[in-house]
Specification:
There is one protein chain. Strands 1-2-26-24 form a four-stranded mixed β-sheet. It has 443 residues and is an alpha/beta fold. Helices cover 29% and strands 27% of the residues. It folds into two domains: 225 residues, Enolpyruvate transferase domain (UDP-n-acetylglucosamine1-carboxyvinyl-transferase, Chain); 214 residues, Alpha-beta prism (UDP-n-acetylglucosamine1-carboxyvinyl-transferase, Chain), CATH 3.65.10.10. Helix 1 runs parallel beside helix 2 and helix 3 runs parallel beside helix 6.
Amino acid sequence: MIINNTSSTSIREIEPGGSLNGKVKVPGDKSISHRALLFGAISEGETTIQGLLPAEDPISTARCLRSMGVNISPIKQGELIKVQGVGLDGLQEPEKILDCGNSGTTMRLLLGLLVGRESRHFVLTGDSSLRKRPMKRIGNPLTMMGGKVHGRSKGEFAPLSVIGRQLHGAVIGTPVASAQIKSAILLAALTAEGTTTVIEPANSRDHTERMLKAFGANIKVSGEMGRHITLKSGENLKGTKVIVPGDISSAAFWLIAGALIPESDITIENVGLNPTRTGVLEIAEQMGINFNLQNKKEVAGEPVGDINVVYSRYLKAFNLDNEIMPRLIDEVPILIVAACFCEGTTQITGASELRVKETDRLKVMTKQLTKMGANIVENPDGLKIKGIRKLIGADVDSETDHRVAMSLAIASLLAHGKSTITRSDAAYVSYPEFWNDLARLKS
């Protein structure tokens, strides 16, 4: 299957054919890993984290927190991570610029965390990709709370400068359902005077709310005409034990691969099944994927379980829209691959957020899959994909995007003829063992 991997250029050659069989444990949920580190850092006492994702993005978060005086044990695969909290106001002004690497979550959540640290100055930057990603959507609501954030293009792009100030509570409606915007506001609310309410138009992933409650914050969720999350400041957070479930965004690659590759039978163990994240399972049902959930339970406030998937001979086209998009935004690249093999035409709308991820994922997936013969029409907020049930091997490029790299790997397994994937090591950002797991399931 994998003929050659030239590490200097990160090119992998993939031969199609065969099946995928066996059990696999995907990495810890990236969203929960970030938040466990951040909340542990500003809590009182020690927080232990089991199953934290040992990939580049959470490591960027840990590096920034260490620069501000937080003691975090080394992050290694399979090891318990210990965070010695410094309390709500204990973060120190760093001596150097905070480097967020390629992690938009690190930068956006740190903005919320730091904007209320009075009389302290912070400068945040990242790699060339992150410096092109929009940040004003975070800066604007923080300004409504009295925050002061400056950056290039009037605060739109990093490097960003944060001047810590006393914040005040506010009622803030978010224009889109975004877990990052919501989380940044709630982090700022922890040190603001009074009460802060975030109103979002639809349910975005709720890991922040669940974890804040577990750490002892005074937080309530309500609302029917729009979701209301209210946090009252004044409560100190207490260190706790966090168990990070497997990331359903990573599990999605095996879910789709198992369904599309003949004679496959894969069990993905200990996957997070938070209802704000399981949109991909709803779409899998619509498509007719043969899967079932096993060993369901709740761990540290998060529902988890195993997903078993077997080859599904006939799959139906599906539609994605504004309503479901917040619950599967990161799974769209692999669903684009799936759509190529579905009977009928798949419509994706309400996905403009994908244009400001690590890459413009709508543009990149269209470009790369078109090289493989896919029938895709790109629209401003989505795609139209006509199922053709056949791709051809081609030279493709992840363009440094981890989810694109893994999606192209699955597409290459299904193609007629050999494919090469340039910059395949992008997968390490969220799934360090992806290529090893792929080779093992193939054996």
